[in-house]
Design goal:
Layout: H1 2-12, H2 20-40, H3 46-67
Amino acid sequence: MKNFKTMREALKNPYKGKPERDLKRKLDSFKTQLDDLIKKSRGRQRKEIEAEIRDMETKVQQVKAALK
């Protein structure tokens, strides 16, 4: 039963429990990627990368939550 709960928590936020140094590095990387996607979206490709932007925003939020 304990294993199931741990797996469920990992699925909610795969970054929880990781070292803070790694999370900060990952957060910087995700923010850079998100900025790049937003820059790309200023034109004809917006609809094509909208899902990617949402996914990247979710990752940024998950890492921020894991850092708290």
